[in-house]
Amino acid sequence: MSLSQDKPTRILFVCLGNICRSPTAEAVFRHKAGQAGWHNLLQADSAGTAAWHVGKVPDARSQQHGRERGYDLSSLRARQVTTADFSDFDHILAMDADNLAELEKLRQQAAAAGQGRTARLGLLLDEHPDTAGRDVPDPYYGGPAGFDEVIDLIETATDALLRRLLKARGVFGCGC
Predict the structure, then answer these.
(1) Is residue 174 flagged as an active site residue?
(2) How many Cα atoms within 13 Å fall on the side-chain side of residue 83?
């Protein structure tokens, strides 16, 4: 997908309810892009395929574990993916295969409705050097270790994603 150099690349991170994994990915990616000085070239958002938590803040445990690592999730609010997201975003990255399948159905609806270009779909962990094809595990029903594992996986995957997206824009040696 060829984009103008002055237009930001937009990434949407998606999980089921948009209260644990995808807002964590959004916050981590935004933080890392800002640290590298590229927040103006790379924009992130998050959403869920289900509408259960629309308007709610991320899970308190996600916020706590994120805060402990320097990521602020407190201003984020859950929303549901829409067909318009396929024309508003350049990349839509699912946290797991089930949500990727739901996104594929929505992309087909967007295309059938003639909503313009469609975002590239993929799994976030396909960006991770050691976990291609794996799901980011849902920590919601587990203990604290699950939230730490999610952040570990997301940090590594978003570092690789950030480098790849900047390289595609001709930015090398980003320090990320």
Answers:
(1) no
(2) 12
CATH number for 9-168 (one of 3.30.110.10, 3.40.50.2300, 3.90.1150.10, 3.40.50.10800): it is 3.40.50.2300
The pLDDT of residue 4: 45
Identify whether 15 is a catalytic site residue. yes
Question: For the chain, what's the residue count?
Answer: 176
Residue type, 152: D
pTM check: above 0.90? yes
Q: Which of 20, 21, 59, 85 is catalytic?
A: 21
Residue 59: both structure tokens together: 């899970």
Rounded CA-CA distance 9/39 in Å is 10
pLDDT confidence bin for 125, thresholds 50/70/90: very high
- Model confidence at 171, in pLDDT bands (50, 70, 90)? confident
- Annotated catalytic residue 61: no
Q: Which of 15, 20, 174, 176 is catalytic?
A: 15
